[in-house]
Amino acid sequence: MTEDFGRDVGAAERMVREWQERASEKAERFGRMQAEIEDISVTESSSDGAVRVTLGSDGILRDLSLSDHAANRPMSKLAAEIMRAVRSAQSRIPELMRQAAADTVGTEDPAVQHVLSRARESFPEPPESEESDEPRTSGAGVREMNLGPDDDDEAASAPEGSARSWQRPEESDDDDFEGRSFLR
């Protein structure tokens, strides 16, 4: 009877040791996945190269480059180009995250599926593809946009109160901060 007990204890110790090894291996793979996801960087440019944005895996703008000829366009058009590039870059992040997960821990793990699902929910779909502003890829996976003259017509015809026609309200003196930051 004591021999059976000894074998059972030995088997239990082996089982715990194997479980610990698997947990350590899984934690190491998840650590690699996290590092790969944190290293994701997406760059998008406008078709003429006037606008270039770079975003991190969190979708936050890391770099914005405007060429000299970007200054020659109306600010509303430039803002629209920047936002299209940002949305286009953000829309690529979930797939890059999926690739990082597939290369490290696989995509079948429920935790990975949850992370990827949240990424798909958090980031926008690619910008609408219309002939005048369809993003295209040219070399090295950089997506570009081609903006046509129709963009100015859209801004001019935007209904009053829409995001395109919004203007900053005139400053009022009712904030009680006497022109200073409330953080001081």
From TrEMBL:
GO molecular function terms noted in the UniProt entry: DNA binding
Signal peptide: none
Region (Disordered): 100-184
Pfam families recorded: YbaB_DNA_bd
Key words, A-Z: DNA-binding
Highest taxon listed in the record's lineage: Bacteria
Protein name according to UniProt: DNA-binding protein YbaB
Organism in which the protein naturally occurs: Actinopolyspora biskrensis
